[in-house]
Amino acid sequence: MKKRLFILLSMALVMFAGNALAAISGAPCVECHTMHNSQNGEPMRWDGSADPASALLRAANCTGCHASATITNNGSNVIPQVDGAVYGTDTTAGGSFKWVIDGDDAKGHNVDELNIADAALGQTPPGWDETHPGAVNDDVTWAQQLSCSGTYGCHGDHDELDTFGAVQGAHHEPSDGLDGSTVGKSYRFLSGIVGVEDEDWEFTNSATDHNVYKGVARNEGGNDSADTISYLCAECHGKFHAAEGINALPSTNMSNPWLRHPTDIDMRALPASSEYQQYGLGIGGYSVEAPVALSNPVAAANADYSAEAIVTCVSCHRAHGSPYDDLLRWDYAGMEAGTTGAAVNTGCFRCHTTKDGDNSL
Prior knowledge:
Blueprint: H1 2-14, H2 63-66, H3 98-101, E1 147-149, E2 153-155, H4 163-166, E3 195-196, E4 212-214, H5 229-234, E5 293-294
Parallel strand pairs: 1-2, 4-5
Antiparallel strand pairs: 3-4
């Protein structure tokens, strides 16, 4: 047992050592793979199972490495964990599945490796549109629960049903630029999506230390782009993203009045008198609490949000989950218009800067 724990911790230290954007290097193959799942009469899988795992891996699924009790999020030299228990302390940009694992379906995506399907919503994602150009599958109603990757998941190749097959080779592919051309060259292995990855997955973060998301400013419904972070969300929640569903007049597409909260809106392009022009002022032009996107992502230290601040799905939501309903980044019920308390200049008021009664930013 001590030997197995030592090997696992060694893997955590060297597997992603150095630049987290690069392919795995410097780690012996045995730390991730096993030829026969047997050594000295003992299984080589981390969970002790005698059954071999796909791709000769030592974990039977994604969470075998990314939700391990023996690995913690403490910087860039570890495997990113998706079940951190202390929000904002040991959780990364995607948030955590911890609260949905604990049984609160409203607080996370119900991934099959970690919990059962949502009791209220079932298996079909809310806002699902099988006709959306990027839809992960063509099922009118899903008959399979959400998975980490593949045909029913977020990561990897959606044409591949097997979750390991969907990301095959991606961990070893040199990523000299995340251009979306392959799974390994896609932002966070989200096939086709472009962005700049923070080296420690935003375990530490600031206005100059964070992910940089790709966005597109849509003035009309037809100029969407298939490589943005919001397009990724639309692959399962297409009806929440479609321009014709955002306002009352389909012919005007992305213009006011809003019926759904808009995405792909550049707040810097709105009138100078708009409250949205005040987003991020006083904190480096960018808020890690309510992140926005750029049409041409560059490293965070060089990113300029004074000319662009594009609203995305992840401006308000965490991809994996959070302690708050609807996977929100903050407590929506705690946002009180005109308040002068703790909610000033936080949450919704990062963008709606005049609604909290404090116009200081």
